[in-house]
Amino acid sequence: MKTDSKGTVSLLIDEVFNKGNLSVLEEIVHPNYRYESPTETMEGIADLRAFAQAFRSAFPDLHISIDDQIAEGEKICTRISMTGTHRGDFLGLPPTDRKVELQGVVLSRLEEGLIVQEWELLDQLTLLQQLGIVQNEEV
Fold first, then answer.
1. CB neighbours of 40 closer than 8 A, spacing ≥ 6?
2. Where are the domains of the chain?
3. What confidence score (pLDDT) does residue 2 get?
């Protein structure tokens, strides 16, 4: 599957997370893949596959929109919006049937045309508030 760097990241979002097509992972993700966020680290395609399956299981109607993408060389910054309904276990929380909407940014680095490293910042506070885990208090 030959595409540009923005297209490769877009395929990951659309095929894997939006459609649940995990078979494309080997075509667009480097075997030495590494993911980091403030709360999680993943290494390898197997970890990414398990994460995508768990997230789609918790939010079966998950949809991630690409709001903006900037690429320079082998690095791509993608601003995303995410929506979904909590219908499966997530972070030990049984389904709440609550709808969530949040935003985030993912910085991806490609090597040999494959995604090899990603750093992600999601608005986790908003997610936890929308799921009722954290109270939304006025400041």
1. none
2. 5-130
3. 54
